[in-house]
Amino acid sequence: MKGMKRYFFHIRERTELELDIEGVEFPDDAAARCGAISAAKEMVVEAVIGDATIDGRQLEVMSAGGDLVAVVSLQSVIKI
């Protein structure tokens, strides 16, 4: 079985970037992207409850090696 890889979910809000220093382990890039989509959905729920805006917020998924794996905007996970 393949080993797990560490991925970091940095949060970008327009020009500001909040770095994820802990990271999360996933088996591959596809699983990390799915994890980012789930995390973005949770962030949308928290924003709605807290009466905050989500415009311009996104998760940037980086591998431990520094490769950009995915960008998931919070708006992209809302189904209306």
Give a concise summary:
This protein is of the alpha+beta class and 80 residues long.
Please, could you describe this protein's structure?
Helix content is 26%, strand content 35%. It has a domain at 1-14 and 57-80. The protein starts with a strand and ends in a 7-residue tail after the last strand. It is an alpha+beta fold. The mean pLDDT is 92. It has one helix at 29-49, and strands at 5-13, 16-18, 24-26, 57-63, 68-73. The chain contains one helix and five strands. Strands 1, 2, 3, 4 and 5 form a five-stranded antiparallel beta sheet that branches.
For the CA atoms, what is the radius of gyration?
A: 13 Å
The strand count comes to 5
Helix percentage? 25-40%
> Structural class of the secondary elements?
alpha+beta
Distance between the termini: 39 Å
What's the number of helices?
A: 1
Give short descriptive properties of this protein.
80 residues, alpha+beta, 1 helix
